[in-house]
Every structure is written in C-alpha cells, then in structure tokens.
Amino acid sequence: MKLLNIKNIKWLLIISFLFHLITSVYSVGFHHLDEHYQILEFANYKLGNNLPSDLPWEFEAKLRPSIQPAIAFLIIKTSQLVGISNPFDQAMIMRILSSILSLLSVILLVYIFRDEIKSEKLLKWFLLLSFFLWFAVYAQVRFSSEGWSGSIFFIGFALLYYLKTKEKSLIAYLSIGLMFGFAFIFRYQIGFLVLGLILWLLIIDRFEFRKIFLICTGIVFAILIGVLIDRWFYGEWTFSVWNYFQFNILKGKVSNFGVHPWHFYITEIFWKAVPPFSLFLITLPLIWFIFKPKNIFTWMLVPFLFIHFLIGHKEFRFLFPLINIIPLFIILGFQELEKDKFKKIGLIIQGKKWKWFIYLFVVVNFIYLINICFRPADYYVSLYQFIYNNYENVKTELIFSNEDPYLRAPEPANFYKSNNLSTRSVVDADSLQDVVNGKKYDKFLLMTDTFLLDKKYRSQNLEFKKVYSNLPKWVENFNYNNWLARTRIFTLYEISKIKN
After folding, report:
1. pLDDT by residue (tens digit) across 138-186?
2. Residues 67 and 181: beta-carbon distance below 8 Å
3. CA distance linking residue 326 with residue 134, whole number of Å
4. CA distances from 129 to 146, 147, 451 (A)
5. Which tens digits make up the pLDDT trace of 181-221?
6. Are 375 and 137 in contact, with CB atoms under 8 Å apart?
C-alpha cells in the first residue's frame, strides 16, 4: 500500500518510540506486585542482597521460571560495570528494553500483515493504533512476564506467517520454535497460544510435518535452557513448570488469591479500556471467532482465552500478552464489518455521527496517553525513588504510623531500599520526639498518608518540613470542605528539633 512507502511510517515509529521512552522514564514501579517481587527481588537474591526468607513463598516452592530474574541480574551487573548503581536507573533500563522488544513485535506485525488490510483508511488506523494505543504503551514498557512472553511469541508468530509461503532454511523454523519456547518459559500460559497455532498448522493449513517438527524441537530446546537457568538460580535441579502446575492447579493454590466469575474479563475490559470504545474490544473478537472459525487467530486465541475464563483466579494483566496483536485484530474486525453480510452496521460506521465518535476516541486516547507517559505506575515506588535519590548517603530513619511502606507483600522491597535507611513505627508526638532526641540517625523522615500533617504528631519542640508529596502544592488552594484531610496521599516530612 502506498501509505507504507512514504516517510510517514518512519516518523510514526520515531514519535512512538519517544512516547515509549518518556513512559519508561516516568512510569516508575510496577503494575502488579509479581512484576517486582518475583523478578527484581529474585534477581536481588542472586546479587546477594536478599535472604531466602525475604522472598515470597513461590521461591521455596520453585515454581517461578528464573529466566527473567536472570535477565534482570545481567542488566544490573552490566549497569554496575559502567557505573550505574542507582536501582531506579537500572529498572528504567529494563523498561526501555521492554519497550524496544514490544516495538519490534509491533513493527513485524505491521510489516507482515499490512497486505491483509484492503483499505488504505483502515491501514492508516492500523498504524496509529499499533503505535499509539494508550493502554498498549503502558503495558509495553513493563518489565513483566506478560509483556516479554507476548512480545517474543508474536515476533515468532509474525516470522512464521511470513516464512510459511516461502522456501527458507529449515534452521529458521528451529529458531521460531526457540522463540515460542522462550515465550512459554517466560509465562507458561502462552503455551495455549502455541498449542492452538500448532494445531492450526497441522489440521487446517496442512503445513509440512518436518517444519512443525523443527518448531517443536526448538520449543523443547528452549525449555531445556530454562531448566539450566533454573538450576543456576535455585541451586538444584528442578522443573519449575511442573511445580507451577502442581501447586497452582493440582493443589488449587491459585484459588487462595481470589476466585472470580466467568465474565470477569468482559467487565474488566469494558470499564478499564474506557467505555463505549471498549465495546469494540469485546464484540469484534466474538464476531471474528463466529464468522472465521478456521482462521489462524481463532485457533490461537480461543484456547488461550478459554483457559483464562475457565480458571477461577483471574487478573486483568493475564491478558497483557495479547496487547501487541489487539490493533491488528480490531482493524481486521472492522474490515469484516464492511462486508455485505454486515451491511447495516457498515452504513452506521460510514455515517457522519460515526466520524464524531472517531474524533472523540482520538481525543480520549491522547489524554490517556499523556497521562500514562508522566504518571508513576506505583506511587509507593515514586516515594522510594525520592528517598533514595535524596538520602542514599545519609543515615536516615523513616518513621510511619500505619504500615511500613517497604513491606508490600508482606516481604520487604529491598531492591529499592538504601542500606542507610531504616524504618520505624511511631504512634504519637511524644514517641516521635523520643526517637528524634535519640540522635541515632543523621536524618529523620515522617511519612503520612494524608496531605496535611496529622495533629497527633505536632510538637512544640519539633519542626516539620514537607519535602515530598504525590500531589502538587497548589492543590492546597482548592481544599474545599477539607477534602484533603480525608484523602490518602503520600506525604513526607523532614523532622528536626527546634533550636532554642
């Protein structure tokens, strides 16, 4: 198509990378605790900074694949060699690498599937959604198992789709199998995407058996490499995929984290992907699966989605591996609606009111995109970053009243914690004054979860200097009906004795 032969594509990619880069810098923290505790804290253990008792129960059960903690370990070690010792900078590098991997997946999907889109208008939307869909950018910068497994799988899938009709070296199919295998050991649930794809190749496409055999051989090799990495990480031979299946499925451990109804993902998509636009994420796949039962996407996605709907414990992030394919799937769905059998719907989406709907979507998507670019993914980690950057080399005690901000799991978030920092619970002004008078530390910080200082801490002998809040100071000018006193906001005060 003409649109892909002009310089616009290069500029779209450059601008998209800038959005991803900005998000990688500012989106500190994680989407879910697993993204931190079972990757960064696992890597921190191999660095010698954690004890086994500091890690979640999955470490002792040996049910988590260690390939991503191993990558984090290598990134941290390499960063230290070039003088980057700040853990927040190291985590940022991991997010940037995640962005690059995701964009590579997106670029391949755009390049290889461009001819499947017959209209230049839809092709334009395919490009814009692929590079600028707000929730995709947010998910693509995460150094998570969901993101890495999905990106690696769809890189392999795009290459397979491209090579399928071409005469290429058989080594290429072995390499694609390796990608599928690595995607599996990053996140085991990807196995259902792989299974559906291989069944489609066998049953529908009648693909050469020797090529399928090479793909499966590559998958096995990747799994064996994963076993070797687990041996290095856990210090003994173990098969983490079996451990995962045994604990979470056979013993039902996963249900301890909550059981949700079958329609959980439908309602989550509806609300989190912004209604009414989110309706298309729900309806278009259903239309596709019904009217395209023999299509490769149907065979891949239905098993993956079915098993996630079937399992009682559900989390929205479990669908993140599909993020990179969503733009293509949306556009192919709209293309299907333009056919004669959907003539009435086609007339609606070509009308003037539909254009206003599209304009509204562009505005909403842009607002959300700007928001996720500059907002921390986790406000606790934003707090950790301020403390580390300003008090790393000072012997400091962080005082809190309700809960230790570094105990999130309940295991400690040691990766982001300076060796010079200790924490303590204090309940009133007298206790606070005793701590400060003890002079065991050079600096004392008080963390509260309100924007205004609680009266119970006020003392005639102590001075409180506000040094951090996750809300800007100008918000105080709009404290109507004293709503700030009732709002949970992280605020940090530096405490000092008032000199007589």
Report:
1. 999 999 999 999 999 999 999 999 998 777 778 999 999 999 999 999 9
2. no
3. 12
4. 20, 18, 38
5. 999 999 999 999 999 999 999 999 999 999 999 999 999 99
6. no
Q: What is the DSSP string of 29-62?
A: S-SSHHHIIIIIHHHHHHTTS--GGGS-HHHHHT
C-alpha span between 305 and 322 (Å, rounded):
10
pTM, entire model: 0.93
Q: How far is 220 from 105, CA to CA, in rounded Å?
A: 22
Residue 154: which residues within 8 A CB-CB, separation 6 or more?
A: 105, 108, 109, 324, 325
Q: Which residues contact 242 (CB under 8 A, 6 or more apart)?
A: none
**What is the distance between the alpha carbons of residues 500 and 479, in angstroms, rounded to a whole number?**
34
Taking 60 as the threshold, does the pLDDT of residue 500 lie above it? no
Helix axes 191-203, 145-163, angle to 10 degrees: 20
Specify the 3-state DSSP secondary structure of 409.
coil
The sheet with strand 462-469 has its strands ordered as: 421-425, 396-400, 443-450, 488-497, 462-469
Strand partners, 102: none
How far apart CA 480 and CA 291 sit, in angstroms, is 55
Gap between the Cα atoms of 449 and 490, Å rounded:
5
Token pair for 43: 């890597």
Q: Which tens digits make up the pLDDT trace of 213-270? A: 999 999 999 999 999 999 999 999 999 999 999 988 888 787 778 889 999 999 999 9
Residues 6 or more apart whose CB falls under 8 angstroms from that of 282 comprise 266, 269, 270
Structure tokens at 141: 């910068």
87-113 and 326-337 helices cross at what angle (nearest 10)?
30
Peptide bond into 52 cis (omega under 30): no
Cβ neighbours of residue 358 under 8 Å, at least 6 residues apart? none
Q: How far is CA 143 from the centre of its chain?
A: 6
- Which three-class secondary structure state does DSSP give residue 311? coil
Q: Is 209 exposed, middle or buried (0-12, 13-18, 19+ CB in 10 A)?
A: exposed
Angle made by CA atoms 209, 160, 170, in degrees to the nearest 5: 55
Rg, C-alpha atoms of the chain: 26
Cβ contact 148:186 at 8 Å: yes
Coil vs helix vs strand at 221: helix
Number of H helices, E strands in the chain: 21, 5
DSSP track, 4-31: GGSTHHHHHHHHHHHHHHHHHHH--S-S
From CA 283, how far away is CA 27, in angstroms rounded?
31
Strands 421-425 and 443-450: unpaired
- Say if residues 396 and 445 touch (Cβ distance below 8 Å): yes
